[in-house]
Design goal:
Elements (H helix, E strand, L loop, with lengths): L13 H4 L1 H7 L2 H21 L3 E7 L2 H11 L15 H5 L24 E6 L2 E7 L9 E5 L2 H13 L4 E5 L4 E5 L5 E6 L3
Parallel strand pairs: 1-3, 4-7
Antiparallel strand pairs: 1-4, 2-3, 5-6, 6-7
């Protein structure tokens, strides 16, 4: 039973108990602190939901594109928003502008500064970049610093029933033959 004139907690504001808190909370500094906390929380949510990215360095991006798309059947993925885009590479000699490529330029062509992006698992992406040297007996070489990545690729090779040969287990190193009878060496590099 509520008696008229009596105070209830719902009628009393927070300012009645802590008048200095509301002055501080809604000051310029208080608003800035609240904005920084909200920004930090949003960034934490964004980064924890971002996909894991494995990077593989290859000796030829065009052959790698054929291998990962056609042989392994990996779906092409978008560049994840959280991924740091290496803009320094675009400032160097490896960058090119489509305006200088002439009328035969094709948008599906591999762009050296971007590399290739594939969906490896549900929340795992594969980033393929150039820069690896040719392997043993001039075979195509794909180098990775992460053993989990190469194990997932080996499972994919086995599932697609491609010819392969494991050369070593630790660090993982195996050979795969593509449809053009090229040998591709998949090698884990210890860091």
């Amino acid at each position: 039973m509520i008696i008229e004139g009596s105070l209830t907690l719902t009628n009393i504001s927070l300012a009645a108990f802590f008048p200095e808190l509301t002055d501080t909370l809604f000051s310029t500094q208080g608003i800035m602190v609240m904005l920084l906390v909200a920004y930090g929380g949003a960034m934490w949510l964004f980064l924890t939901s971002a996909p894991k990215v494995y990077t593989v360095m290859v000796s030829d991006l065009v052959i790698a594109q054929e291998f990962y798309e056609n042989l392994l059947g990996l779906p092409v993925a978008d560049v994840p928003l959280h991924y740091y885009y290496n803009y320094e590479q675009s400032l160097g000699a490896s960058a090119f502008d489509p305006i200088y490529m002439g009328s035969g330029f094709n948008d599906t062509m591999v762009k050296p500064k971007d590399g290739l992006w594939y969906q490896l698992k549900k929340n795992t992406q594969l980033h393929i970049i150039g820069g690896a040297s040719l392997g043993y007996k001039n075979c195509q070489r794909h180098v990775c610093f992460d053993g989990e990545c190469l194990e997932a690729l080996l499972l994919r090779v086995q599932a697609r029933r491609l010819k392969y040969k494991i050369r070593s287990e630790k660090p993982l190193n195996f050979l795969v033959k593509d449809w053009d009878n090229r040998v591709i060496e998949m090698a884990e590099v210890n860091n």
